[in-house]
Amino acid sequence: MKKVIRRGVFETNSSSTHSITMCSKDEYDNFDSGKLYLNEGGWSSLSGNKDKQFVTKDEAIEILTNNKYPPETDLNILSGDELEEYFTENKIYSSKKYFDSDLESFENTYKTKSGETVVAFGKYGYDG
Q1: Least confident of 9-13, 116-120, 122-126
Q2: What is the per-residue pLDDT across 41-64, written as a single tens digit (0 to 9) for each?
Q3: Segments forming the whole domain that contains residue 66
Q4: Residue 4 located in a structural domain
């Protein structure tokens, strides 16, 4: 097998997981407190919010409702736990669900030269 090296591409073996998200401290604090959800889904949605990194509960419902394959149930009538599970199945995560896995996680805060505080967080490890 010929080994090919591609410049500017991060590659790993198929049984490893690596994830990093960067955001402002305000966004992270709202995610951490449950006011915002991390949107890693939404790719087949017709919603204008599908590309937003962080979304409110109502925006998450809109993304999933306007999806190519919308839910059969009205998401507004689901209990909090049921809605949380549906979000997670569709890669829209609360802080609790995002960090609740067998993978290692990290969170680091950085201050830029201009004084803005940036948070980097993610997960990594073996998922196979």
Answers
A1: 9-13
A2: 888 888 989 999 999 999 999 999
A3: 16-126
A4: no
Residue 37 lies in a domain: yes
41: helix, strand or coil: coil
Burial class of residue 65 in the structure, from the number of CB atoms within 10 Å of its CB (0-12 exposed, 13-18 middle, 19+ buried): middle
| 67-123 pLDDT, tens digit each | 888 899 999 999 999 999 999 999 999 999 999 988 889 999 999 999 999 999 999
Side-chain half-sphere exposure of 46, counting CA atoms within 13 A: 6
24 SS3 class: strand
Q: Hey, is 104 helix, strand or coil? A: strand
Kindly state whether residue 5 falls inside one of the protein's structural domains.
no
**Count: domains in the chain:** 1
CB 44 within 8 A of CB 91: no
Helix 57-65 to helix 80-89 angle (10° resolution) is: 60
Query: Is 87 a member of any domain?
Result: yes
pTM (predicted TM-score):
0.82
Burial call 80-94: b when 16+ CB within 10 Å, e when fewer: eeebbebbbebebbb
